[in-house]
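Homework help thread (please don't just give me the answer)

Our assignment gives two proteins as sequence + structure token strings and asks us to describe the second one. The first is just a warm-up. Here they are:
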Amino acid sequence: MSVSTESTNAWTRRFPAFESVDYRRLFLSNSFAAASAWMLILARGWLVFDLSDSTTAVGIVVFAGMIPLAIVGPIAGALADRFDRRRLAMFAPAFGVAVQLALAALTLSGAVEVWHVITLAAIGGAAASAGTPALDAILPSLLRSRDHLLNGVALAGIARHGSRLIGPSFGAAMLATAGVGYAFVLAAGFLALSFWQLYRIEFRPSEGATPATAIRTPLWRSLLSDLADGGAYIARDPRLMLIVVLVMLHCGLTMAFDSMMPTLATMVGGASNVYGAIIVGIGIGAVAGTIWLSVLGNTPVKGGALAVAGVGSGMSMVILGLATNPATAVAGAILAGASQSAFVVLLTTFLQEVTPDEYRGRVLSIYSMVAVGHMAVLNFGFGWIADGAGVRLLLIAPGVLWVALFVAGAVMLPELRHVLRRGDFRPRAVALEAASGGR
């Protein structure tokens, strides 16, 4: 056997999801799209802060970019359970290219105003939200084995969360050299590469999809009915309800800090360079955390990892809030990236494991709606309050509250205790019996 073949086999043994050619294409697409997204968060945030000198304005931009997932995402999830998920996913980067080029043109011409950035952030966020549920739902069907699910979700986490390292690194370099306008041009280029990789993925229909030609009621009414059915399915399954509540609290209390980072960077003794270093630090931590998860496999260690990541998420916010110099702020950012990405990857894996394919698009879209919706609202709220109260309290208090709630849940909730001890959920029938008071 040749050295290259041995190296390839060793690589796929460690990362078995990469055995699938189409999964590799999805991974590349996610990587390019996420690099673009994180570059945009950095570039838009600094541009608006520079134009307005207001944390509130930064919070509004972050809110505008995130909130469409709470509005568009659920409908897109229902569509993903009916139609070609690959084609739906391709829409997002294709439209996003046009949006980012428009923002680049406004910025490079010197005509850009805060309201331009807010409006285009909302439009771009809506386009991205239309493709997100389809991207999430198609992932399991691209894997060669269901045993590769944690590895596949963790690698997708590396692509999305780890691109905080790639995107902001390029974005920070652009801010320091060519200027923020060219950061938007590069973000558009990354989206074009994301589109190309999705285009190369083979068609795979949803297992429970109803052909469009068989729909007898108006499409909008069918989609609303499908969405209500997906919500009811979550409500009937205590495992899914637990996951949704956990992600809601976690994202709202430990991940809604983007609007405060420009101010924090200024407070600890820096400007755009320190701001970029904090965002890159989050990416470094995210890469480390998700690579670690990707080699765990389906073992009880997942439960312990969830516990460590949950507590670490809250403590990272405390470290950021107490930081008085750039080194401490970046250290807190690295811990935040590692713990928060690991927690989200584990919850997403559990969700994928217990959700049947015919509900996958809707369940994942509702899950994302809850997570990102709370992040968007609290980013806006924290940014607004921070102009008067300062950022330190708004980092420390939510972090401490999250740790207290997570520890209390681990003690009081049988389903969470089981997950933390065993690394997986009980079968649905067992969970339903326990929830109804049975033994």
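The one we have to describe:
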Amino acid sequence: MAKMTDMEAGKTLSMIVYGPPLSGKTELVGKLAEEFELIWFDLENSRPTLFKLPAEYKDNIDLFAIPDTQGYPIAIETCRKVIKGAEVWICEEHGKCSCVKCFDLKTKTAKEGKAVTRVCLNELKPNQAVVFDSLSQLTASAVANIGRNKPEGYKFEFDDWALLGSNLHDFLSYVQNAPYNVICISHEGSVKMVDGKEKIVPSIGTRNFSRNCAKYFGEVVYCEISNKKHVAGSSTSYKNNVTTGGSSGVALEKKETPRLLDLFK
């Protein structure tokens, strides 16, 4: 136990940026590369948007394209291993950690003609961050993985939904307590809260899971298009029907040009 007066505020940040399609989420996060080195896990082909960034920004982004599909749901496996922070080796061809087809675990070298990259999030510095784009696709990957060996037309049962929640909680609990900067991107969903009112929340897992998923993040940012402009909100009072807020107290909606860098500063 320690007194608050003897403790320092956290030096790292966990953040989720969410909103409808084409609302500027990826570009907003990508612009962090102005001052941050980003390790970007691309689960749903966000590269075209990132290519629009200035050359000096793109030079600060190391991108892992994870080829996640319904038939090959590799994202949930890879991301759950990566987020734990320890050393992993990811092959370019399959997006898999310690891929036996591409990597020799004993010698820790890539096999002939294969490209493999070492990642260790626990080694990240304050000016670095890892990005997961997106948690909506991570959910789809987890669902596909759980139903992978089931017969065609199989409908999820209680134990399947429980396993989905367990997989996502496992990943997000590491996000919540990460000793490095983490930014997650997600689509939006609408859920009914305990007071009976509908509210827009990050879309992660089931509706019940999404209802409370903001608890895993220190900052929750919402993106949308208003008056033909991309805008972002981050204060708890942004909109009554939208989940936003965070420990920084910064209101991006009040800034002429919203920047996630302001939340870090």
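TA reply:
I won't write it for you, but here's a hint about the kind of observation we're looking for: The mean pLDDT is 94.
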